[in-house]
Amino acid sequence: MNLDSVISMILILGIVIGGFAYFLYLAIKKENE
Amino acid sequence: MKEFTTEQFSSRWGIILASLGMAIGAGNLWRFPRLAGQYGGAFIFLWILFLFIWSIPLLLAEFSIGKKFRKGVIGSYGELTGKKYTFLGFFIAICTLGIAFYYSVVTAWALRYLGLSVSHVFSSLSIADSISKNPDYLNQFWLDISNGSVVTILVFIAVILVATYVLSRGIKNGLEKANRILIPSLFVLLMVVCAIALNMENGVLGLEYMFSIDTKLFAQPNIWIEAVSQSAWSTGAGWGLLITLSSYSKKNEDVTLNTFIGAFGNNTASLLAGIAILPAVFAMSVSEGDAISYLQSGNQALVFTIIPKLFANVYGGDLLSTLFFLALFLAAFSSLLPMIELFVSNVVRMGISRKKSMILVISVFITAGFPSVYSLDFFSNQDWVWGIGLILSGLFIAFGVMKYGLIKFKTELIDVDSDFSVSLKYFTACIVVNLLMGVVLIYWWLSRGYSTYPWFDENGHWNLFDVYSNASVLTQWGVVLFFGFLINRFLYKKIVSPV
After folding, report:
1. Which residues from chain B sit within 8 angstroms of residue A17, using beta carbons?
2. At residue B456, what are phi and psi to the nearest 5 degrees?
3. Is the pLDDT assigned to residue B128 strictly greater than 70?
């Protein structure tokens, strides 16, 4: 894979999947409080 | 004033799973891979941009409108904007129903392909044999299934009946219970399919293509239109579905966090679907150029022709093909449920009991969905008309928020029970930008004319029956708006403020 694709893949997956995981974590944390 | 007893989701996870179920559907598994394949990383970049600019602000608005007014789409919109503009809420509801009628057909296609996978029609031997005799075999197979097949019509009717049965059990026992099984299963299945596709030879080339950004594409208007309409289509922004679902949320439900989970969860599912399909196309094509030209053709049948071929080439392909079409069916079915609920909630507010409204659902959905299950051209026309109609629906929601007062809306409706909040500047800027952008995008799209004869045919007649003509789109939108305007007072009296 070329470097440009790797960088954009990391950014895109990081924002989207990372964001989803983070918001889920917040919700679980709130429910457990 | 009449009082309506409103059921509620049993917990926060009930509404989260319902909004994920609503958002994750055919838009992720059937529409997104096609568009990501057509334009590559440039499309994905714009699609994420529009998640923040278009979809999240509108979803925040929709969640809070439903939670505050609890009257379904037409009723809540009428409460938000006042008597004069209730017909705009009617347009939002009809636009979503326009999608729901052909969406039930996509659900039926998924179920049909699931059945064919289970019965080993796509087993490697039979597929390889058929393709060697006729290379276009899978495409023709798809056209047979999607154009007036009696079995597909029967499956379509069965889908409507089962969905109606689930909803007849109510929100907690029907919708919520179904989503508790459907959504986690869907994510697991998608991850399994991704892992298989990426492990195929040349699969990684598909990943490289998917994430490489060709900046020249940003100069093309259609990539912007496709990105915003895909974001709206897939997240459910502007559909009014979140207004419907949040009508059943708890009174102190967190708007912001739940909306973000739904929006990001939806985009995660889309990316997983893209990572499953695009590498598969590269793995199975004779050359890289072949794969790119196939993807750039924007073939609507992408998942229905590629997946059977993909799994015919791997060990245990029958089982994997079954898993994929099961995922597609679950996704489509979990999105169809809130669309039907949107219809039910408005009918119930007109004084018809929930049980009787189910009979109405069956008759209306079967009648209105029939032309799409019978003709692929009619289906494509409806996808075009109401898919773009979502931009208009989004504009109407943005207009409603502005009419209520941007600051008042944000502080009173969105922030009131939210643990964290987005900034006021971000929300107000996006709503204002969306209003302007929506108008520009619609004008831009009309001026391009996607049909050979966008307005008048070669004989000078209004080109109403062309699949992709501007004339067809504007006529259908116009009829709904005009009819809504005519019955505006009736809608307000019956749905918004029934005596």
Report:
1. 268, 271
2. -120, 140
3. no
> Is the pLDDT score of B499 beyond 70?
no
> How many pairs of residues across A and B have Cβ atoms under 8 Å apart?
63
Closest chain A residue by Cα to residue B257: A23
Is B333 a residue whose pLDDT tops 80?
yes
Per residue in B217-227, pLDDT tens? 999 878 988 89
Q: What is the pLDDT of residues B25-60, one digit of tens each?
A: 888 888 898 889 889 999 999 999 999 999 999 999
Cross-chain Cβ contact B44/A31 below 8 Å: no
pTM for the complete prediction? 0.92
Nearest CA-CA partner of B112 in B382, B289, B406, B325 = B325
Question: Is B211's CB within 8 Å of A9's CB?
Answer: yes
ipTM score of the complex?
0.97
CA angle B58, B61, B67 (to 5 degrees): 140
Cα(A10)–Cα(A12) distance, integer angstroms: 6
Q: Does the CA dihedral B110-B116-B118-B123 come out positive or negative?
A: negative
**Distances, alpha carbon B260 to alpha carbons B20, B25, B59, B155, in Å:** 10, 17, 9, 35
Determine, for residues B264 and A20 on separate chains, whether the beta-carbon distance falls below 8 Å. yes
Query: Could you tell me the domains of chain B?
Result: 12-496 (1.20.1740.10)
Q: Do B268 and A20 touch (CB under 8 A)?
A: yes
How many whole angstroms separate alpha carbon B409 and alpha carbon A24?
Answer: 26
Domain ranges of chain A: 1-33
Nearest to B264 among A2, A19, A31 (CB): A19
Nearest to B224 by CA among B441, B51, B427: B441
